[in-house]
Amino acid sequence: MKTAVLQNLGNMEFTEIEDPKCEAEGLVVKVMASAICGTDLKIYRHGHAWITLPWILGHENAGVVAEIGSGVTGWKIGDRVAVGCIMPCNDCYFCNQGWHTSCQNTRGISYHYPGGFAEYMAIPPEALKCGLVQRIPDNLSFAEAAVAEPLSCVINGQEIIDMHLGDQVVIIGMGTIGCLHALLAKSRGAVKVIGADVLESKRDLVGIFGVDVYINSSQEDLVKRVMEETDGLGATTVIVACSVGKAQEQALSLVRSRGRICFFGGLPKDRPFVNINSNIIHYKEVSVHGAFSSSPRQYQLALDLIISGKIKVKEFITHTFPLQDISEALKMAEKEESLKVALEPWPAL
Using an 8 Å Cβ cutoff, are 147 and 60 in contact? Predict the structure, then answer.
């Protein structure tokens, strides 16, 4: 099969390798769309502790069932499917508490198993057992189905901070994740969503995704504007949807008393520390939360929201590329004009 292999950091090679083998309790999926995530870009540039190169990335996937293991029932060749990423063990202390994103034995497609930057992808038995392979209807594109994976992570973040009716929300960083947060916050009952970014080019884009007020924080005083928009109280919820330490620090100046903050983006490993006024947390009784990954339940919920049309993701797919153009696709994914860039290993019929 044809595939894009990360041979070494910064070097993704389009090449041909053997087709993946189908395990008795697994599947093989013909990949029709594999979207490029910010995490893929980080791994491309900096690597990952779970990954030994050369390796096949791609954890936002959708396609059709191409092969079925001898011990698998309930599937047929040609079934249209979306494929999730993270597989908790369901046996450790944290899984037994229902905290699957903290699983001590997590496995993941694109991390422990080859990902979807390829014509075919083997689905391990664990993924089937977890419910990470889900059927999708004919009227949903494969690229749209691939967005269920990042949406599931956004769901996890908003469940952790208890986004609810009446919230006034500030989202710092209006890339794919920030825009997904805006859409989901509105669907959960937020009455005002304020998006902030340093790029003026984001102003027209974010209006599509449920943002009521856009603030270019490179040109305006973000704290002053947020206070004006919230009657001087600050936001009930602040989501930092970017990997910028200064944004995490500033979040404490944007939140009201008893408000909630979500640090959604991880910081670079060589600059993981920030300076925070802990008196704000203490005296204003502010809650600060991290959010990472998602559970199979959240992945299934994300896909249900997309299939039902409650969360519309078609506008997120700004660019598509054939697999052989992986280098150009990665360059586009790093540009500010893109949201979600999808690889399509097979020509459209």
Answer: yes
Residue 219's φ and ψ, nearest 5 degrees, are -120, -20
What is the SS3 assignment for 59?
Answer: coil
Looking at the structure, do residues 77 and 186 belong to the same domain, yes or no?
Answer: no
Q: Is residue 24 part of a domain?
A: yes
Integer Rg of the chain from CA: 20
Residue owning tokens 């697994």: 26
Tens-digit pLDDT profile for residues 253-291: 999 999 999 999 988 888 999 999 999 999 999 999 999
Per-position b or e across 290-326, b if 16+ CB within 10 A of its CB:
ebebbbbebbbbbbebbbeeebebeebbbbbbbbebb
The Cα 119–Cα 124 span in angstroms is 16
Find the CATH number of the domain harbouring 65: 3.90.180.10
Q: What average pLDDT is seen over the chain? A: 96
Say whether both 183 and 55 belong to one domain: no
Find the domain containing 265 and state its range. 162-290
Confidence of residue 349 (pLDDT cuts 50, 70, 90): low
pLDDT of residue 337: 86
What is the Cα–Cα distance from 339 to 326, expressed in whole angstroms? Answer: 16
State the CB neighbour count (10 A cutoff) for residue 79.
Answer: 17
pLDDT in tens, 298-313: 999 999 999 999 999 9
Q: Per-residue pLDDT tens for 137-154? A: 999 999 999 999 999 999
